[in-house]
Amino acid sequence: MSPFQALYGYIPTHLDFPSSATTSVATLEEYMKQRAVVLDILKETLHKAHERMKFFADKTRTDRVFAVGDKVYLKLQPYMQASVALRRNLKLAAKYYGPFTIFQKIGAAAYKLQLHAEARIHLVFHVSQLKKHIGTIHSPSPSLPVLDTDGSILVIPAAVLNTRTIFRNGAPVLQMLIRWTNASSEDATWKDTTHIAHHFPKFNP
Questions:
Q1: pTM for the complete prediction?
Q2: Using 50, 70 and 90 to split pLDDT, how confident is the model at 14?
Q3: What are the tens digits of pLDDT across the range 176-196?
Q4: In what order do the strands lie in the sheet with 124-126?
């Protein structure tokens, strides 16, 4: 049911008449004429808004065309989404993986990549997720990240690099320097041992 019917308990009145309908009631005839004018104004306004949005979008849009055999970088996510914050500037880390080889073009805007045998993601990607590899530029991340069964990037503790004891409100708190999966040692963060034990009970340091 509609939100109106759920709130008020009855179906709202619907004054929808075909544009070709005729009536002998002067008030209704005037209403239908005003309604037709309003609908024309709305359609014209929506069309102008659509053209304006398309104009500004096309100004920054670039067509990407690749050929079979080209090397491309793959963007899986604009930034790593995780329930545990690795570091505040994680979105500034590398977001492209590869380069990988294109071995098939799917339609006009999708390509099939030759990924690693252990990759657990679909091989077809939209052209917007690809970036051409030029020259001998060093790859920011040559291997794909580890994914869970839902296809999301898996972020769990991988190893304990160090331990320390800090004082919080006068009480000692034991912390561990955690290296996370899909992250380098430079992204390791200090976490309370109680926090790790609560959120990752299967992790055994």
A1: 0.47
A2: low
A3: 998 877 677 777 888 899 988
A4: 124-126, 110-114, 96-106, 71-75, 130-132
Which among 135, 86, 125 has a CA at the least distance from the CA of 102?
A: 125
Distance CA 160, CA 185 (A): 10
Tokens standing for residue 180: 């996370």
Beta carbons of 36 and 43 less than 8 angstroms apart: no
C-beta separation of 145 from 76 below 8 A? yes
Angle at 142 between CA 137 and CA 148, to 5 degrees: 150
- The length of the chain, given as a count of residues: 205
